[in-house]
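User: quick one, sequence for these tokens?
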């Protein structure tokens, strides 16, 4: 049963963190263990400094050339690991939320000195809502930071997690001696030599033995004994099942930069992280081991090479095998499509593959057929759920600045919206187009890309909107809804799917409207 074996040896996950906690560094070290890359510095950071657009464009250009950084795959101990890239910058949070629909688990990176930060909180809350299994990695132990117990408390309180440490630091910063691996019952001594790739560990089967004092000194040894006793007393015993259903989160300590504590994390990850899971569709639950292929698009990446304006649609395989040159049903368009050069992803490159398995990501060249959330199947008509649009936070009118290029502008906007860069709304009263985004940076990105990829120019005009919410009437024919539409006609728009959206200009007016029309529900995501 090769098919089942292939499914069971796949682990598809994302690393989430606040910018600068060490996500890129950790990714790189994980790849080193897989032998997928030879040297440090090989993984491109997707970081945007101070929100500079030029920075973003530069990154996008580099990634456009090697889009493989969106998915990094490697093998370790016969497990095929797919890491999905998640941007840390808050303006791209939506991109990260969508990517989280394609992972089976996550690793959360936390800076030992900064503790739980804002982006970590947001992303973890999304994972918690979906019961995604999480492992926490506390990074930068080579620096002075918060006390381990204090930090574990903070993680429980701010992130709402139930943690249990599977490793524990011996000292910290200047006095950092190493890590005791609770999971494997051994000690890894810190030497601070970052070039060392594979660490040596020392078995410590009896914590009371004098060997421990010799290894780390009497004071540290006694402190460790006390702390481990506390750990045992306070935290629940690790259970794989509790971790896999999202109710318990194991914690590891280390220093990614020094490649320290990373092997412990990876070894535990491959033995506990879940293989691909069943996924809910609009008609039924689909299991990975089903024979027929199904999958969904969770990301679309524009090719930044102006010579070929094609895009790469990233499809997560949910069930069956995806094969080259086999026609598959695009269920939204109800038409069959065949792909002659599907890309699979490896550490730093992409290659054309003949066959891919559940858990894998394939990159399909696309000239405009796909948008985020689309489903592909062997023939069955079903649609995967769970990629909502979020209520944008910024709103501007978009105007055409070059009347000769209105077709190009329309096409550019259309395609950028399909990629999920922003959301387009059309005002009911006058047909004007409004672009809503999560971050202000997107406006510059849109302007830049419209010009460089589509040859169209646009300008923006401010619009005073506090929040956009999707309108869901109890009964579209009742008097209350008719009155709402009449009174609020100036504030109504349609999104790209034709759903009705209400633009509230302040939180007060939103509240008043909700009170006045109790039979209408106002939603802050497009999926309800
Ligand atoms: P990202 O924004 O989460 O991807 O963070 P990076 O991996 O780019 O790391 C941010 C900064 O922290 C970089 O300067 C890294 O060199 C540094 N860094 C990462 N891990 C460690 C660590 O274990 N110890 C120390 N001292 N610095 C680290």
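Assistant:
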């Amino acid at each position: 049963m090769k098919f089942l074996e292939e499914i069971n040896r796949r682990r598809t996950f994302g690393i989430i963190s606040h910018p600068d906690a060490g996500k890129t560094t950790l990714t790189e070290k994980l790849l080193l263990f897989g032998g997928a890359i030879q040297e440090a510095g090989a993984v491109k950071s997707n970081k945007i400094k101070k929100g500079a657009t030029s920075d973003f464009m530069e990154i996008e250009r580099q990634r456009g050339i090697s889009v493989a950084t969106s998915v990094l795959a490697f093998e370790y101990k016969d497990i095929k690991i797919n890491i999905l890239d998640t941007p840390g910058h808050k303006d791209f949070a939506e991109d990260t939320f969508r990517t989280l629909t394609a992972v089976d688990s996550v690793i959360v990176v936390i800076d030992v000195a900064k503790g739980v930060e804002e982006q970590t909180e947001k992303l973890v809350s999304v994972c918690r809502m979906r019961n995604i299994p999480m492992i926490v990695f506390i990074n930068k132990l080579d620096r002075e930071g918060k006390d381990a117990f204090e930090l574990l408390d903070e993680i429980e309180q701010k992130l709402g997690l139930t943690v249990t440490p599977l490793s524990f630091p011996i000292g910290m910063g200047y006095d950092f001696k190493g890590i005791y691996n609770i999971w494997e019952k051994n000690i890894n001594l810190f030497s601070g030599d970052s070039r060392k790739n594979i660490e040596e560990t020392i078995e410590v089967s009896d914590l009371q033995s004098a060997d421990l004092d010799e290894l780390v000194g009497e004071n540290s040894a006694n402190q460790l004994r006390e702390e481990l006793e506390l750990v045992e007393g306070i935290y629940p015993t690790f259970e794989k099942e509790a971790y896999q259903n999202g109710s318990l989160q194991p914690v590891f300590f280390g220093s990614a930069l020094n490649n320290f504590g990373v092997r412990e994390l990876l070894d535990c990850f491959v033995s506990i992280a879940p293989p691909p899971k069943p996924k809910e569709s609009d008609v039924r639950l689909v299991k990975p081991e089903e024979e027929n292929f199904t999958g969904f698009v969770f990301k679309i990446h524009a090719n930044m090479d102006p010579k070929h304006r094609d895009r790469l649609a990233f499809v997560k395989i949910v069930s069956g095998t995806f094969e080259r040159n086999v026609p598959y049903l695009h269920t939204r368009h109800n038409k069959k499509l065949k792909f002659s050069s599907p890309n699979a992803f490896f550490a730093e490159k992409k290659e054309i593959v003949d066959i891919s398995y559940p858990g894998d990501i394939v990159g399909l060249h696309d000239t405009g057929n796909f948008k985020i959330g689309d489903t592909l199947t062997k023939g069955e008509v079903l649609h995967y759920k769970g990629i909502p649009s979020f209520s944008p936070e910024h709103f501007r009118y978009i105007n055409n600045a070059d009347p000769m290029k209105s077709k190009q502008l329309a096409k550019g906007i259309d395609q950028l919206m399909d990629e999920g860069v922003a959301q387009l709304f059309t005002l009911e009263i006058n047909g004007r187009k409004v672009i809503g985004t999560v971050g202000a940076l997107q406006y510059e990105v849109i302007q830049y890309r419209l010009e460089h990829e589509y040859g169209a120019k646009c300008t923006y005009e401010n619009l005073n909107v506090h929040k956009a919410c999707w309108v869901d009437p109890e009964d579209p024919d009742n008097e209350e809804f008719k009155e709402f539409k009449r009174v609020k006609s100036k504030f109504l728009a349609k999104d790209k799917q034709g759903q009705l959206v209400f633009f509230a200009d302040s939180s007060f007016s939103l509240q008043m409207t909700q009170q006045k029309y109790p039979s209408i529900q106002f939603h802050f995501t497009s999926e309800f």
